[in-house]
Amino acid sequence: MSDTPAPRRRNWLLIVSLCLNVALIAAVAIGVVRLRHPPGPLVPHALIAAVPEERDNIQAIIDAHAARIALLRKASANARHAAFNVFVAPDYSPRKMSDALAAVVAADTALETESVAALGDSLSALTPAERQAFADRVRKRSRSWLFRMFRPRER
């Protein structure tokens, strides 16, 4: 009798499980980073957090723009969907795609214009002292090692 060992069977289920666990850990890490670091300081909700005395006034400004922003956001999504439909259509042509992408640009521009208008109205509601306090708070907002590592050095 020979003493040759039986060939080892790869446990592919274990490998797949390991890959899924790594992907889950990465997704959770990305979520935590995004929660800890909001998109930027110049958003109306950041103003509310920084200047609580103006909360009602800024919230009223946000509410005044919210319906139009929601409508424009939906129009932007619809324009992107229409552009995709042009892309996958059997009668695709570069001219139709160019027109569809121009509609996407127009919808995105309208959305961004309204968002910036809401921000401008919110910023104009602050007094000079409140603006300075907000600016000071933003400047010393993030002192994490990751922020310092990628920030350009001041000379």
How much of the sequence is in beta strands? Answer: under 5%
Number of strands: 0
Query: What Rg, in angstroms, do the CA atoms define?
Result: 25 Å
N-C termini distance = 78 Å
Q: Indicate the mean pLDDT.
A: 83
Global geometry: flat
Helix content: over 70%
* SS class: mainly alpha
Low confidence ranges? none
Number of helices: 6
> Mind summarizing the main beta sheet?
none
The helix/strand series, from N terminus to C terminus, equals: HHHHHH
Topology:
Blueprint: H1 12-36, H2 44-50, H3 55-88, H4 94-124, H5 128-139, H6 145-150
Helix pairs in contact: 2-3, 3-4
Short description:
The chain is an all-alpha fold and 155 residues long.
Please characterize this protein's 3D structure.
There is one protein chain. With 155 residues, this protein is an all-alpha fold. The protein is 74% helix and 0% strand. It contains six helices and no strands.
Descriptive keywords:
6 helices, mainly alpha, 74% helix, flat
